[in-house]
Amino acid sequence: MPALTESLVIFSDLDGTLLDHNTHEWDAARAWLTRLTSKQIPLVLCSSKTAAEIIALQKELGLQGQPFIAENGAVIALDESWNDHPDYPRLLAGARHEEIRLLLGRLRDTHGYKFTGISDVDEDTLAEWSGLPPKRVSLAMLQEASETLIWRDSDDRLAAFTTELEQNGLMLIEGGRFWHVLDQQGGKGQAVAWLMKQYRAQRGSSLTTLGLGDAPGDAPLLDAVDYAVIVKGYSRNPVILKQDNPERVYRTEQHGPAGWSEGLDHFLADA
């Protein structure tokens, strides 16, 4: 079982996990956030959100300067103390946002796929879709290496669309509310593994990792860590892991930040 020691690093999804799916509040996680900070346990936010959104949230949560993973692994920010690292301050994986947006436009024009990207709408529309407060909406539109969309076509067409993306070096990830397109060099699992390697290099010691997520798109994150918490979510599809056993994986009864805290209670209450 993990312990609250310097060897522990926690990776957490945001929407539907640390943040409430509907209200984006996190009060139910406050006690554990305070405890992790007091023990100097890194909490790496790992999300589909943009770097600009996560930096703002880090300030709100008291996590400034810690590494984070944005845009489902397409963007990796390093710890502020690693300023001698060759990839400091952050690493972008593969294709940039504008390249992805142009390719999506060509696929839509050629095959008639029905979807709407957030680059196609204004801030008021995105606020209505996401439920984000106005101050966060403009930050959500600052994508650097992915595109977020709402799929409006059939499941059969979705399968064909996914194949087209793969043939162009991209992948499609299902989130709690949207779909996300990014380079195959990205992905939460690859980003977590890369950051774990950096932590080992910086610390020169063994590492114990715990991850938390709520949606199918979080499976690569949860597969990459030693211990996994699947927070009860709202996706119609289950979160399927490669190594799903009760010693390693815990499924919560509660949603959002209450479930997030429940998962940490399960693995760390006795620590």
UniProtKB/TrEMBL annotation:
<dbReference type="InterPro" id="IPR036412">
    <property type="entry name" value="HAD-like_sf"/>
</dbReference>
<dbReference type="InterPro" id="IPR006379">
    <property type="entry name" value="HAD-SF_hydro_IIB"/>
</dbReference>
<dbReference type="Pfam" id="PF08282">
    <property type="entry name" value="Hydrolase_3"/>
</dbReference>
<dbReference type="Pfam" id="PF05116">
    <property type="entry name" value="S6PP"/>
</dbReference>
<keyword id="KW-0479">Metal-binding</keyword>
<dbReference type="InterPro" id="IPR006381">
    <property type="entry name" value="HAD-SF-IIB-MPGP"/>
</dbReference>
<keyword id="KW-0378">Hydrolase</keyword>
<protein>
    <submittedName>
        <fullName>Mannosyl-3-phosphoglycerate phosphatase-related protein</fullName>
        <ecNumber>3.1.3.70</ecNumber>
    </submittedName>
</protein>
<feature type="domain" description="Sucrose phosphatase-like">
    <location>
        <begin position="171"/>
        <end position="267"/>
    </location>
</feature>
<keyword id="KW-0460">Magnesium</keyword>
<dbReference type="InterPro" id="IPR023214">
    <property type="entry name" value="HAD_sf"/>
</dbReference>
<dbReference type="InterPro" id="IPR006380">
    <property type="entry name" value="SPP-like_dom"/>
</dbReference>
<dbReference type="GO" id="GO:0050531">
    <property type="term" value="F:mannosyl-3-phosphoglycerate phosphatase activity"/>
</dbReference>
